[in-house]
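Journal club side-thread
Mid-discussion, someone asked how the predicted structure for our own chain would compare to the paper's figures. Pasting it here so we can look after the session.
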Amino acid sequence: MPTIQLNGKPEEIEGSANVLKLLQQKGLDPALVSVELNGRIVEREEWDSTPLHGEDEVEILFFMGGGSVRGRSSGA
């Protein structure tokens, strides 16, 4: 099986793997991530048609929610 680098760690993939299949295999919600392949952001609409090959470097970037700080006194 081919091996990619996934977030800096070796990961074996199927020969017919693509970005979308990788996300599904990892149990990740595609709505909550972005994917970088060999230093380039892959657009969502390209995930199913973007194959993965041995030695590819894949970074899965997770969206993190933030919020405002409420009820905090300014001390004034």
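Post-session note: Residues 19 and 47 are 5 Å apart (CA to CA).
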